[in-house]
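Technical note accompanying the year-one report. For the benefit of new consortium partners, we illustrate the data format agreed upon in the data management plan: each record pairs a sequence with a structure-token string. No post-processing was applied to the example shown here.
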Amino acid sequence: MSRDIFGKALIDFQNGIYSEDILTYSSLGEKDVLPLPYLFRDYDAMPIIEQKALDLCRGKVLDVGCGSGSHSLHLQKKGFEVTGLDASEGAVAVAKLRGVRDVIHSNIFDYSGMKFDTILLLMNGIGIAGTLNEADRLMTQLESMLHRGGQILLDSSDIIYMFELDDDGGYWIPNNGKYYGEVEFRMMYKGLKSDPFNWLYLDYNSLKQLAEQHNFSCEMICEGPHYDYLARLKVQS
């Protein structure tokens, strides 16, 4: 738990010890705030993209990166059999305290067990891959976790807008051999700093190409107000 800064913050909020939010620092030079109350929101306070994803769930559901369990709790109330999964020990503890009946403490790549009809990767959940190369590995893992005819519902963002325009009207992207959506982050909470970790933002065209390489169909469900989108991947028979 000593390095589980995200989990510590969730536990503090759950226990009524809320005095500050999580700060994030990225390799793009951005400093941002992750408000803890937002991580405990109910369905009515969720973005349209998340609401739509929850509405499209069917069968047995796996909520990857379940955090405090907000998505899982909504699905439970709707009568779904849902399993939450998170690599954060603190997040798993909080989700259980909030009433999520089935929560697993595991990295997605280490998981083996049940298969599901729907896998949720919300709040840019595909970001857990870290890099575009690892997204290929993630697709292989997710495919192994789905029942025949199963679906993946995920949202992500195309962060091309964060780069400067050049004289020709295109975007200036550093020529460092990396996909521009690969970002390194560090979190800070109550004076504690996390180790650096990679997070992936995947544009829709790259997602579609990746999905098709793994025998998934890929459908754009809707777009959000700021370069974000919800997509549905289905195993092709």
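Partners are asked to follow this layout when depositing records. The chain has a mean pLDDT of 93.
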